[in-house]
Amino acid sequence: MSKEYKDVEDLRPVQTTDEGEVVVRRRGSAASTHDAVFGEMTEHGPNYRNVGWLGTVALMMKTQIGLGVLSIPAVFDTLGLIPGIICLLCIAGITTWSDYIVGVFKLQHPAVYGIDDAGGLIFGRPGREILGLAFYWIFVGGSGMLGISIGLNAVSAHGACTAVFVLVAAIAGFLCGSIQTLGRISWLAWVGLTSIVTAILTVTVAVGVQSRPTDAPQVGPWSSDYELFKNPSFTEAISAVSSLVFAYAGTPAFFAIVAEMRDPKHYTRSLLICQGGVTATYITIGIVVYYYCGSYVASPALGSAGVLMKKVCYGLALPGLLVSTTLFIHLAGKYIFIRIFRRSKHLSSNTMIHWIGWIGCTLGVTVISYIIASAIPVFGGLVSLIGALLGTLMSFQPMGFMWLYDNWSLPKSERGRWWTFMIGWSAFVVISGTFLMVGGTYGSIVGIIDSYKVSGGSAAFSCADNSNSVHH
User: Fold this and answer.
1) If we measure between CA atoms, which residue out of 379, 353, 405, 438 comes closest to residue 243?
2) Rounded to two decimals, what is the model's pTM?
3) pLDDT digits (tens, 9 = 90+) for 181-201
4) Exposure string (b/e) for 135-147, b if CB count within 10 Å is 16 or more?
5) Which fold, 49-453?
6) Distance between CA 302 and CA 67 in Å, rounded?
7) Contact 248, 279 (CB under 8 A)
8) Is 321 within 8 Å of 151 (Cβ atoms)?
């Protein structure tokens, strides 16, 4: 059943199905599809609506399982095993609800493509601009390049200057990220997901069978010094929780993913499979690696099982890290591209202007991500900073406001106890996200500054080997 609505720019009304599209047939030509976001799509242009529900699972899991999982054992070392698991489950619960609201909001407002469109609906132009900063994915793209440089350093035994490896990562990410549609990238997501999961399972098994971590004292008796409870400072604790937020902060990507689904009604199915698999993986990896390594766990965790296994694990992980970087560059580039060409024929036609614009967007994102990766070469610090400053802002507060936007004005006859509970829950998500954002950003900045003060710490645009960081 079709309905009429005004899109996020309050321009002319358009006719749309519940999925945000209507098929238009023209005399003497093939059928074309009008999408609320991508406009009129024909067989002569890119098919933006071609991701199935299984492909959606892969894309979702790849935006989640990547860099974040590699910092979870170190988070447990900071918080203690039991508080670490509790915090992880709390973050998982809140972000799963946030992710669910993304799908609901998309079905109710088909013209929404990104989190900036949601911000525009709720808060007007200021909300659109604040949430429209593609800086989030640009920063995450930088952390992806940093992860690749660590992997290349590990595999090659620091065979070249780290800044060169970051450049190699940037070039590879740009070439793959410039593929036009998520439908064509979804197979890469499966490859990347298999790669990263294989690597982290390998390091998990390796730390379990070895006698002691490589960085632990190699003489005398040794047993793991893992602790169930620890007593971290506020900055240490809040930075650790920010790293957990980063591990689940694929939420803003889910807007773009559901926008390219063939049938957005299958979104919730894909989401539940994704979040269940991600949470089980995170808990298993975190517990096993921290249990066997204790305070000698490395961050990223793939370096925890000795030199040989570090090379093996990073070799297995490199395709996954590349796919993560590919996705982040693609998402940031496409956000800017759609923002420029929305309602233009060049958005969904393979014209010269289309290609110049698209390549220009992905190249610009790549260059900025490269600068970020080279300027903040401390993996743990960069991950917690992104999680705190941008991950919470993109994964907590907007979703609370999105539910309130759609439900605050319900008629009194439809307001029951559930409505009252959800008002409180939405407010809690907004407030807790704001607290994590402010406190976590402070803690992360303090941690990065401290890492620069340490003798031998990584420096900006450095040639130093960045694959030997140990979390103490």
Assistant:
1) 379
2) 0.84
3) 888 888 888 999 899 889 888
4) ebbbbbbbbbbbb
5) Amino acid/polyamine transporter I (1.20.1740)
6) 11
7) no
8) yes
